[in-house]
Design a protein that fits this description.
Length: 336
């Protein structure tokens, strides 16, 4: 991508999209195209088609999606599969129709089977049943991978799917019911510290293992992949029907920890001195989700932000954006 290349970041206000915007801007890209949801509804096929016809982006980062934790996925399964299928279908098809040079489709590590061998390699896709609580979202993302693969094989397009591990960082969602594990823990421990509460309740047993990556590391990886020379990028696209692997690259740090260990680290960063209580009557989700990141590491990229530094920066972001105390909810934490 050249400094003046026309780059469309779909979902530029979310955790992933905002990190991409910061990294692209820092690298000198001056022609970034964005639209808010109010300006462009990506579930509206005609609107997406008109946008691509007008703006003619050369590169697309497809970070727009409906996302949430266990409770949100379990409460709104229809919205999660409907909206995500619509968004990615319209954007990927329009990108092909209007000659986009490269597209990066962002998914999630929940695409892999619930009891997947660890660490999870790209070839483990579709080798077993999914985690039931987020199956609609996962199936939508799997469909997006298959759509990229199908367009690459049939039309020679250059569409790559990346599956980041659990993300956190600036611009995260701290909603008391719909957030992911780290932002929800930050909020819970912060409000407990403010209220001098004796304890914080966390959903599940604390035993599941998760991998966490700072959002700007993820963005750096995405830009790194989009800038690979053709001799490295094209083999990732699986344009040959018999190539085996789909056009899929895991993005992660290659290390994980238990939710209990994570909660203790977040508690320390926030400065809450009370007890952590686990509620085993609530779901744990997938027992373990650790990505095998050897594919991207073999290309020359590794994560650079450690968890402790990342948590400090995430908490600083929360403090800078939090609302009045009466707006703070009282929900327990969900893991995903």
């Amino acid at each position: 991508m050249k400094p003046d290349s026309r780059i469309y970041v779909a979902g530029h206000r979310g955790l992933v999209g905002s990190a991409l915007m910061r990294v692209l801007t820092a690298k000198g890209h001056t022609n970034l195209i964005t639209r808010t949801h109010a300006e462009l509804d990506l579930t509206d096929q005609a609107a997406v088609e008109a946008f691509f016809a007008q703006e003619r982006p050369e590169y697309v980062f497809l970070a727009a999606a409906r996302v949430g934790g266990i409770l949100a996925n379990d409460t709104y399964p229809a919205e999660f599969i409907r909206d995500n299928l619509a968004i990615q279908t319209h954007v990927i098809h329009a990108a092909w129709r209007h000659g986009v040079e490269r597209l990066l489709f962002l998914g999630s590590s929940c695409i892999y089977p619930k009891h997947c061998p660890q660490p999870m390699r790209e070839e483990y896709l579709l080798t077993g049943p999914l985690e039931p609580t987020n199956r609609p979202y996962a199936i939508a993302k799997i469909a997006g991978i298959e759509m990229c693969w199908s367009y690459n094989r049939q039309y020679g397009s250059r569409f790559l799917a990346v599956m980041p591990t659990n993300l956190y960082g600036p611009g995260d969602n701290y909603h008391p019911e719909n957030s992911h594990v780290i932002p929800a823990l930050i909020r819970r421990f912060h409000e407990a510290k403010q209220n001098k509460a004796p304890s914080v309740t966390v959903w599940g047993t604390g035993a599941p293992r998760r991998e966490f990556m700072y959002s700007e590391d993820m963005a750096e990886a995405c830009v790194f992949l989009m800038n690979l020379p053709d001799e490295q990028f094209v083999p990732l696209l699986a344009q040959d029907r018999n190539s085996g692997l789909p056009p899929l690259v895991n993005i992660g740090v290659g290390e994980d920890m238990t939710i209990r260990e994570l909660a203790e680290r977040v508690r320390a960063v926030v400065g809450f001195e009370g007890e952590i209580v686990f509620d085993p009557s609530k779901p744990d989700g997938t027992p373990r989700k650790l990505l095998d990141v050897s594919r991207i590491q073999s290309l020359g990229w590794r994560a650079g932000v450690g968890l402790q530094d990342g948590l400090r920066q995430a908490y600083a972001d929360f403090l800078s954006r939090r609302r009045l105390p009466q707006d703070v909810g009282q929900s327990s934490q969900r893991t995903r």
